[in-house]
Amino acid sequence: MLNIHDYVTIPLPALPQTQALDSETFKPPVLDGSLTITEMYDWHFDHTPNHPIFIFPRTADGATSTILWPEAVRAIRKAGKITLSRFQEKDTLSSSRIPVIATLAASDTISYYTTVMGIAYVGYTVFPMSPRNSAQAVAHLIRAARVTHIIVGAEKMFHDLAAAAIELLRHSGDHAPHVHEMPFFDKLYSHEEGDEDLPSQAVKSSLDTVVFILHSSGSTSFPKPIFWTHLHLLQWASVPYFGERDLTGVRFASPGIPMFHGMGMFQTVWTAATGVIITVFEPKSPAIVPTPEVVFKHAVDTNSDLIFCVPSFVEVWYENKEYVSWLSKKQGVLFGGAPLNKEVGDALSKAGVSLFSLFGTTEIGIVTSVLPRKPCPDWQYICVSKLMKTEFLFNDDGKAELIIHPHAYHVPVVTNVKRGDVEAYATGDLFTPHPTLPDYWTYYGRADDQIVHSTGEKTNPGPLENILAQDPHVQNAIIFGSGKFNCGVLINPVEADKFDVTDTEKVADYRNKIWPTVERMNLYAPQHSRIFKEMIIIASPSKPFVFTAKNTPRRPFLINQYEPEINALYAAVAETTQPDLPVPSEWNMANTLNFVRTVVARTLGKTVDDQDAIFQHGADSLQATWIRNYIFHAVRTSAQVDTRKFPGNLVYLHPSISALSTFVYEEMVSSHQENRDVSANQCQEMESMVETYSQAFQNHVPSTESNAEDIVLVTGTTGGVGAYILAELLGTAKVSKVYAINRKNKTVLLERQKLVLENVGLDPALASHSRLVLLETDISESGLGLSSERLEEMRSSVTHIIHNAWPVDFNITLATFQPQVKGVRNLIDFALSSSLPEPPRFIFMSSIGVFRNLKTANPVQETAVDSSIAVGSGYGESKWVSERILLNAAAETTLRPIIIRLGQLSGGLNGYWKEKEWVPSLIRSSIHLKCLPALDQSVTWIPMAVAARAITEMRNAGAPILHVAHPKGTPWSTIFQHFSKSLNVPIVPYKQWLDLLEDSSLHSKSSAPARENPASIILDFFRAAKPSTEEAMGLPRMSINEAQAASTVLGSGSLSALGASDVELWLNYWRKTGFLPTGK
């Protein structure tokens, strides 16, 4: 468990001097930990007599009222006195447990702010609860936080909610807290008899004392209490100090932000730390309800500089040119909690409105800079605050999850992940980086919201749901479809449009009413994410939507609630896309016609003449979709034809069996011809790139100076195999220095290297080795992106280059790998510019991927291959191109490269094996399927540490091309018997296993197929397994004769074959990371 004092020491480190730079009325208190947040209020009572804390407009005369710091602190002390008189638990403050006082209200900002700070002032813990919670959620929070008293708003709804929650607690035998009413502004800010004995000092508290309890949104379950101490609040208070604007005296309008929200509570510390002035609604009971018009008028009446609101308000303001004109003259509009419509944002930005997106969570606070000097030109990007120590962990789709690490300025309140030996907080939020601006990111969506279809394609529901929610008849929308071929949507109508959903005519009418908006969404959505009319489910009044504290629908809960309706909808799919339909073994015209006839007959439940329009026989759009889907599925799986070019309205364009059959047959013929043409064109592109980067190699000019020891430049050491190569080099006595080059990243390279070393089972202290020089640079830049001094130092000393860095992405094209290919050429130029007697040996880490189209069962020799062998994946193509450039350089210069093609790597010394690879995916899915596949082939998987040693030993090899694979092949059956025994899962014939995988992909009810059944995401790989090859899964068996001559570890015969101990090591690692269930 994370200990905040492992990172934070008192006094706290000095902050950047950005606040109160020229204020005559506000002097900030010290934020070094010598004062708690509540003690700062006493400090302001004595030192800030003339600075405003609140400004509000008066409805009576249109003027504004200002509350200065002394008046506010006096009211807070009065709230503290009321707290003590009501609760009569002063003696409990000396006990081990401080009483927790919850609030359940939506009172005006000043009354709420004053009350909660008054409770904290006298030493109690405050728990602002969202009144949007259900009674069950409120009861859960009361129980979890051990609440002793609740302060409720005057309105009946709050009393009813509290009463319902308390009744639930009593029914379950739990303690029921006492209920009190929220004090009004008039009471708090009046001068009454007895006020002379108000508390004069805040209760002295430890920095580790919990001041506020906030709660999570409760998207996936009941909300969870999050405990904020005085020390955490000091972190909150320092947020603006890491921005670029002085907020002192700035009028900050936030009347639409509820105080029970995290952003509302931020105001309690920012006012004290920076002197920002909060402009709020006039205190009234009941409180003024914020609407776009009311909030805008408030901002104008109070002459506010910055306005913070929800995006929907901004979208309304955009419609009024006068509003836009006024906003363009202000310091900015801040929004958060949801995305802003892009068209609106673009137009406002163009009109001169400064837009700032805020992002934060209850567990960590505000992540964005508050505030940058200028808004980002691309307004939807956030600037990450320098207060935070962040890591962006990229997935295979190029999206990065935000992870917050602890450090001296900021420690997450909650941790949920271990990065190396560091407890950190993984937010579950995905971002994409700005293409050119460092530290700027745009929000993509929740990692757990991403819908992974049975095809492996993904739908990001957030933007699509936002489009649907703009329809005046739609309150909310939730898109579903995890593990399914296509999406559906659950629509919550606005109150005026709710109806009995068993009335099929009304369902049809409502679908037609919102259909134009769905069509607009479909224009934006990728083809696999589009919604068909019959895939719309209308929420029933008997199953109302439930919401989080952020007023967003509780997605997993609602999908679970509507599971019967969703399953019934997909059952219709299953009935019309039956897996037993015979797929043609050959797609000639006769077979294609018979296949389409069968599909149509099964879908409609009757036979139709070939020339008849199927819609004349009662087919609807849903059935047209099923016909299209099954044709797509059959064509894609049996003939590996890309169906993305097939039109989405295929059946409408070709509405008869005859027309459909003709279209499918012609596309198949065309596709096969195109594949041949594409292959030829791609070979030409590969060879053209080789020619481009093989021009004008320089001649090496040797000197007489030489190095007796090896000095190695190695790239990509923050990857798994790269870390092992680094460890081998540092463990080799003849290697006197290692330059480890890695790309720049927000996380410090030393920390990244330590983390990777530990993750793969190596000593993280190696990252600080005396013979290691860590360098961050981009080798695709001129001079490898290094300073001239460093470049010259390396030119005169480096004896070996091991180029290992390469992005592993099988979905991108060769053109996307151009920077990597340019990096290879730059390294060649660097080697040839060496001042040593001969150029450094250049060891290039290639891949088995260059054999993509090899059609032989014989071992592949360690020789060059034709471009046509590597065509098909940008990754393998880029490796082939680089191989050829190096061979050209060897032919024209004195460079002696060594190309090492790596076979399938297995785990590290601690069992580390990246979960997204095919073997771990197969094992996880086999647990899900309750069986493992049998194969008659063998495997030559080589442990990562052994491969790294072989590579290091090969650095002076004479042969130009070497293969790295295990010299002792192990039967698949041997390995999988160990898996079977350890997992208690039987082995079945491969076809049976594959059929189960196919079926689970089509009919999975799981909401997270990628987690429970990851092999379903790479079905095509398992379908393509060739039983004719000696190596399992259709991978080529590589000859390693030359490699064994160059490497002792491969050639000595002492290396043990893979066995039970290896399997246990992998399984234990996957269990430890949570990839496999601990019971397996």
From TrEMBL:
<dbReference type="Pfam" id="PF00501">
    <property type="entry name" value="AMP-binding"/>
</dbReference>
<dbReference type="InterPro" id="IPR036291">
    <property type="entry name" value="NAD(P)-bd_dom_sf"/>
</dbReference>
<keyword id="KW-0596">Phosphopantetheine</keyword>
<dbReference type="InterPro" id="IPR013120">
    <property type="entry name" value="FAR_NAD-bd"/>
</dbReference>
<feature type="domain" description="Thioester reductase (TE)">
    <location>
        <begin position="714"/>
        <end position="951"/>
    </location>
</feature>
<protein>
    <recommendedName>
        <fullName>Polyketide synthase phosphopantetheine-binding domain-containing protein</fullName>
    </recommendedName>
</protein>
<feature type="domain" description="AMP-dependent synthetase/ligase">
    <location>
        <begin position="105"/>
        <end position="379"/>
    </location>
</feature>
<dbReference type="Pfam" id="PF07993">
    <property type="entry name" value="NAD_binding_4"/>
</dbReference>
<dbReference type="InterPro" id="IPR000873">
    <property type="entry name" value="AMP-dep_synth/lig_dom"/>
</dbReference>
<dbReference type="InterPro" id="IPR051414">
    <property type="entry name" value="Adenylate-forming_Reductase"/>
</dbReference>
<dbReference type="InterPro" id="IPR042099">
    <property type="entry name" value="ANL_N_sf"/>
</dbReference>
<dbReference type="Pfam" id="PF23562">
    <property type="entry name" value="AMP-binding_C_3"/>
</dbReference>
<keyword id="KW-0597">Phosphoprotein</keyword>
<dbReference type="InterPro" id="IPR020845">
    <property type="entry name" value="AMP-binding_CS"/>
</dbReference>
